[in-house]
């Protein structure tokens, strides 16, 4: 049990840090309405950021959207085109 406490503390610290980073960046991200999103479907790249169970259990998926799990943001963000508007959404 004593060996698990440091790992648990590190995991908690990393989780809290990631929330802080996401919250800090959230203020800089523009929010748009569903209607604005619909008007940009032909030109923007849509990223579905729902978690595994929320995504896989849903029958509502936007055709053409890519799946971009928040846990793997570094991986998928490196592969998307930088010359398009990117709309990230979740439910």
A few lines on this structure:
This protein is an alpha/beta fold. It contains four helices and three strands.
Describe this structure in words.
By secondary structure, this protein is an alpha/beta fold. It has helices at residues 4-26, 34-39, 52-56, 73-77; strands spanning 45-48, 66-67, 86-89. The protein is 43% helix and 11% strand. Strands 2-1-3 form a 3-stranded parallel beta sheet, with no helix packed on it. Helix 3 (52-56) links the parallel strand 1 (45-48) and strand 2. It is globular and about 50 Å long. It starts with a helix and ends with a strand. The mean pLDDT is 75. Residues 40-91 form the Rhodanese domain. This is Rhodanese domain-containing protein. Residues 1-26 form the signal peptide.
Q: Descriptors for this entry?
A:
91 residues, alpha/beta, Oxidized Rhodanese, domain 1, signal, Rhodanese-like_dom_sf, Rhodanese-like_dom, Rhodanese domain-containing protein
Average pLDDT for all residues: 75
Question: Could you give a short account of the major beta sheet?
Answer: 3 strands, parallel
Number of helices: 4
What is the alpha-carbon Rg in Å?
Answer: 16 Å
Number of separate domains: 2
Give me the CATH architecture of the largest domain, please. 3-Layer(aba) Sandwich
Q: Which homologous superfamily in CATH is the superfamily of the largest domain?
A: Rhodanese-like domain
Strand order of the largest sheet: 2-1-3
SS-based class: alpha/beta
- Amino-to-carboxy terminus distance: 37 Å
Strand content: 5-15%
Helix content: 40-55%
Q: Briefly, what CATH class of the largest domain?
A: Alpha Beta
What characteristic shape results from the CA principal axes?
Answer: globular
Low-confidence stretches: none
Instruction: Give the number of DSSP strands.
Output: 3
Following the backbone from N to C, one meets helices and strands in this order, namely HHEHEHE
What name is given to the CATH topology of the largest domain? Answer: Oxidized Rhodanese, domain 1
